[in-house]
Amino acid sequence: MTDHRPASDARQLMSVVLAGATILLVVHALGRFIYTPLLPYLVGDGQLTASEGASVATWNYLGYLIGALLAVRWYRPDQIRISLPVAMGVHVLTTLAQTQVEPVAALSGLRLINGIVNGVVFVQAPALILEWLVRRNRTGASGLVYVGVGVGLLVSSFLVSGTADMLSGPARWWPAALLSIPLALWATWRLVGLNVPARIQRDDGSYADKGPLLDRASIPLFLSYAGAGLGYILPMTFLPLLTKTQLPDGHWLVDGSWLLVAVVTIPTPIIWSFLGSRFGDLPALRLNYLIQFLGALAVVVWPGPLGIVLCALLVGSTFVGTVLLTQRIGRALHPHQGPRLSAAMVALYSVTQMAGPWLTRQWLDAGGTLVGAFTLGAVALGWGLLLALFVPRPEDWHAR
């Protein structure tokens, strides 16, 4: 008699990973990063100035911080099964509301709320899936969840550029809002039914919420991750706007820069998962930081098309890898605190992400240029690379 269980297990695995990728596509791409290609059009429509656009982005990142902090509190799987569908419902409602508001203050408030639920979901969904995978000895598949971010960037690029001539002002949010509804419903339903213990236990039977997260091994990892948050958020927020200011109307990079980021982001979770498995997550993370640093620096050293293309390719091909590799290293250092550790890392990451647009606004208001702001991003990524050199290998740390 043929055993169909391996095939059934494979289908279940792909279904769960697909649901995770879909939920990240919805909240992180259609909810958050679609603002990046939308921003030049919203500025062109007269709804926002460049400075106001940076301010609106800051409110979204503040919300992301609040959401991550809430996830530190609501990190247990039994809590996630409640908060995840609530957060997804709020995401859909705020995205729909963005189609109706024009004042900057109202848009800022909605982006704040949207950021909160984004932070909650971006922590809880991958953490829940990772715990489910660990119990099936399939941890290496965890990186596939982040494919949803890359696919979502590509989808968001087509949604914005494909409707650019048909919509204006707040109505530009309609494509993202309508697509979010069915995707959010299916992905949420699939994930809340995962069979994961209500609380994560150590081998000695104690619960993981009793131990410290910060020690000599994890502190440099946290500080390195903070540099990543500040470093990548500048190109991921302002690269299309920088392109529009540097290149003439009609140049293919005006819309194409974000498309390049989206295309190269799609395979990166698979690539960085493989590199981490082949050479070790820590060496792969250090290489990741180096490439990302060069990408942020490119627009400073070579203003114009060459720098823009290099920035799009190098940052787009690395920033998701930073997330998945750091999360895996952190869990290896603290094996039984997965969701709690993930939430703490994302909270710190979001602090520096919030600082990026805020600092950019101060710089622009003081008469600075976007190119100058990108210098700050390169410095932050250099900091991340430096601190990553002080993170011990998990096997060495546990064998000490």
Automatic annotation (TrEMBL):
Gene3D superfamilies: MFS general substrate transporter like domains
Family matches, as SUPFAM superfamilies: MFS general substrate transporter (SSF103473)
Transmembrane region(s): 12-35, 55-75, 141-161, 173-192, 213-236, 256-275, 287-304, 310-329, 341-359, 371-391
Highest taxon above the source species: Bacteria
InterPro entries to which the protein is assigned, alphabetical: MFS_4, MFS_trans_sf
Keywords of the record: Membrane, Transmembrane, Transmembrane helix
Keyword Lyase: no
Example of a GO cellular component annotation carried by this entry: plasma membrane
Signal peptide: none
Entry protein name: Predicted arabinose efflux permease, MFS family
